[in-house]
Design a protein that fits this description.
Length: 359
């Protein structure tokens, strides 16, 4: 059994985060504040808590932001190194591209946008017990079509890998955490785009490699869409999703330093109020994610929505299941409902967008 301290972790953070636009126009998805901290902090803290010490971040889109924030990783008790793809190489290409930084024979690879509670040591134990070439953490979800569907046989051996299949044969999916034997990474073609899901895993199965699943029922969520991001952030605030980076005691809301909440404002449903943000009297925030310096004025209602940095939400506005970009200015009584995405800096006049007919 390898000691976790001798295992390298690789985190893939080079995606464009398209489904979280416009927030990802200014910050890469893994850096978006989630329960008040860049999402990646929660994942890195879990890796550190598992005893892994050396982490390589595979970056591409907005690569500099990661090193600027995490530096050497010392604050998290980690040694973090960075490898940047000038052009995105895909998930498999991204893993291959960090090979020169790897020191161990067993490597844990993580998608950088998954909020999860699985016991990483147990995934490693499965890898060793099965004498696997690759072990995939697998979970069951209600709708597997948005993920990689991964059926296994009675011994836990992976029998197929079907990425984003329209008609998946099982609800068991790739949870975005793998254990690789180093020699498998060495065999990934270098210097070109490679998808680990569409190319590497299917080729390994065809070649008869030992690919196993580690299935569990721990908390799991991909944070890639606004709905999931809001839910994941709220679950972190309420303690439903664990994070070693947050205080142990958690409640219905989390208010960061320098934020102002007027008396009579109601904060529920895992609402987070970022640094320097302001909430006016009588506002009702249910599952709201307020980034730094956002301002929600008196009597406004925010439900399951993300409010970007420095954005203003005017008095009595209603924001429900929406994403409001950085620095937008939403006038009084505006109504922005399901699926609305307001681009950064956009200004909407008082009463300028409504779903109801009263004035
Ligand atoms: N370095 C690098 N280079 N990283 C990349 C690249 C790239 O070209 N493309 C994507 N990534 C990173 C993203 O930043 C993200 O952290 C991770 O790889 C996965 O990419 P997503 O775009 O979030 O993929 P997905 O959510 O549609 O599907 C993946 O995750 C699911 C579980 O959450 C797949 O691995 C599915 O099989 C899996 O079920
Ligand atoms: Mg994803």
């Amino acid at each position: 059994m390898p000691d976790n301290a001798d295992i390298d972790a690789v985190v893939l953070v080079g995606g464009q985060g398209t489904r979280l636009r416009p927030l990802t126009l200014s910050a890469p998805k893994p850096m978006l504040p989630t329960a008040g901290l860049p999402f990646l902090t929660h994942l890195l803290a879990r890796i550190a808590a598992a005893g892994i010490g050396h982490v390589v971040l595979g970056t591409s889109f907005k690569s500099e932001v990661f090193a600027d924030y995490f530096g050497t990783g010392a604050d998290l008790g980690l040694e973090i190194e960075y490898v940047t793809e000038a052009e995105p190489l895909g998930t498999g290409g991204g893993i291959r591209n960090v090979l020169s930084k790897l020191r161990s024979d067993t490597v844990m690879v993580f998608n950088g946008d998954v909020l999860c509670a699985t016991d990483l040591g147990a995934v490693l134990e499965t890898h060793v017990a099965k004498e696997a070439d690759v072990t995939l953490h697998l979970v069951q979800v209600d709708d597997p079509r948005a993920y990689g569907c991964v059926p296994t046989d009675l011994d836990g051996r992976v029998t197929a890998f079907l990425e984003k299949a329209p008609d998946p044969p099982t609800d068991q999916i790739n949870a975005g955490c793998y254990v690789f034997n180093r020699k498998i990474i060495e065999e990934i073609p270098a210097g070109r785009v490679v998808s680990v899901e569409r190319e590497v895993f299917p080729a390994l199965l065809t070649a008869g490699a030992r690919v196993f699943g580690h299935v569990d029922a721990s908390y799991w969520r991909d944070m890639g869409t606004p709905e999931d991001f809001v839910r994941g952030s709220a679950d972190l605030v309420r303690g439903i999703a664990p994070s070693p980076a947050l205080p142990g005691q958690r409640g219905e809301s989390l208010v960061y330093s320098g934020a102002g909440v007027a008396p009579g404002a109601l904060l529920i449903g895992g609402t987070v109020i970022g640094r320097g943000a302001e909430v006016g009297a009588g506002a009702r925030l249910d599952g709201a994610v307020l980034f730094e310096g956002a301002r929600v004025e008196a009597g406004a209602k925010i439900e399951r929505s993300i409010i970007g940095q420095g954005t203003r939400i005017g008095p009595r506005a209603l924001i429900r299941d929406a994403v409001i970009g950085d620095g937008a200015d939403i006038g009084a009584r505006c109504e922005l409902l399901r699926g609305a995405r307001i681009w950064p800096g956009v200004k909407i006049d008082d009463g300028g967008i409504r779903f109801s007919t009263d004035v």
